[in-house]
Fold each of these.
Amino acid sequence: MPHHRTDDLDELIACPVCDALYHARMPETGERVTCSRCHHVLIAPKEGAFLRVIALALTVMILMLGATFFPFLSIDAQGFSNAASVFDSALAFTDGGWMVALSFATAALIVLIPVLRAALVIYVLGPLAFGRKPWPGARAAFRWSEDLRPWSMAEIFVIGVAVALVKVSDLARVDYGPAFFMFAALVVVIVLQDGSMCRWTIWKTLEDKKSS
Ligand SMILES: [Zn+2]
């Protein structure tokens, strides 16, 4: 249960679900602070959470490398066979015009933004995980990573592909390449990473370590 006090505006925390306002304090490790109105978890610091988030962010970057360059799928139809990676597909639209812009934007949403977010999280949490002072610009980097969250579309890409493949499978034989399974794994890892990040704890640690 959050602490009720009336001083210190910095320590205010609003429930993202029901907007109830609380004065927050750092709970003991393993303890969690929940909204007393709707029971949404507000603060949940976990032992070793920063290191776990860093490990998951590294996993995102490595998986994304494979998911981009390994064959994504191969299609067989009437004797013709074609295998392509996501990278090949992004380069396929080089004949000019707005298709180039479209393929670049698609590649950015699917590949670059999730990788950028992972890199920002590692930059922010790296020093904190070892009890050091944050690196310069860590607050801006974390803000940026949070702002980019809705634009990270690896998950939506996987769902889109699944729907498209159901349609295509009537016309041609479709085989999934290793990159397809890497994308599927990415979706799980990104969800795990976002789930193990207690944002309040990260902001609070950035604030406390800044002056020390
Ligand atoms: Zn609430």
Note: The chain has two domains: 9-43, 49-211.
Amino acid sequence: MKYSNREKNLYQHQPCQESFFCQNCGHVVSFTGAGTKHRNHCPHCLFSLHVDVLPGDRSANCSGLMEPIGVWIRKNQEWAIIHRCRRCGHLSSNRIAADDNPIMLMSIAVAPLANPPFPLEKMTQVLNDTTGDNNEQD
Ligand SMILES: [Zn+2]
Ligand SMILES: [Zn+2]
């Protein structure tokens, strides 16, 4: 029992060096080329699997596919991907890897702009309004 716990938490303390098939796109994901110790998503489609509670600990019991739903910029200007589990809704943030597909990264980043929650004309309207004298804040 003690031994299997150690196995489970193995990748928190040392790099994961296993190749695997991406369960979303079927791409073979190898540990080389990532430029990071923890390759936690497919560099081709950027999907991940819900296997970790803490990065690398492999202690989540879900195993759902995690969809890349957004990117954000960490304080060192580095991009990170927000993954959302399709099975349980868990959200997690993961550093991008050196060989991540740049087209996929960009398409995730601009997706909200391509599908705004209001008609684009409304922006012109708001801009016109704010040039007037009706700024009530401050
Ligand atoms: Zn993939
Ligand atoms: Zn999950």
Note: The chain has four helices and six strands.
Amino acid sequence: MTQSKVCAFGDDPMVVRHTFAQFPSGVAVLAVDIGGEKHALVASSFMVGVSLEPCLVAVAVQKSSETWGAIKDADSLGVSIFGKDQGDLLRKLASKDRAARFEQVVIEVRDEGAVYIDDAALWLECSIHEVSEAGDHWLALLEVKQLGVGENEPLVWHGAKFRELVDAESVGVK
Ligand SMILES: Cc1cc2nc3c(=O)[nH]c(=O)nc-3n(C[C@H](O)[C@H](O)[C@H](O)COP(=O)(O)O)c2cc1C
């Protein structure tokens, strides 16, 4: 008998977290300035290409997120995808001390309130298209209004570590 590749995970969330951590992703920060107060929500659940016409991306946000409560009605959200050397910045923008998140962080604030971090891999200006319930998260569809690509390569989040992209065909080839 062949051994099964899958097994029941019961009610152990750590098994689920550990398994999902093997799925690599980029990490986004949704950022906005509302009346001079800046908010940042770091999310690895960010997903591009949900739809091309209209241009939609998605993010899953924990229902417990205080930042989401503050930004969910914003007209415009800045989305920056962290670059390969921005792990420390990511940690800062995701820190528990919400008031300190933007201390000494180089940003650009646009008139409509969208906030972008410097040296990101790419930037999107989005509006909130639709929000639906997804278990213990909100699933937010964002409509992309403007976009741009930076010169920094993206940081990769995998196995609870920050990693960098490597060209597979160049590995081991002399
Ligand atoms: C690498 C990384 C990825 C994260 N991904 C998500 C995510 O996809 N969705 C989410 O709601 N929170 C995510 N978080 C947690 C949030 O960034 C934030 O810490 C949390 O929402 C609590 O802060 P808040 O109450 O200000 O929202 C992530 C944190 C880190 C460090």
Note: The CA atoms of residues 9 and 15 lie 7 Å apart.
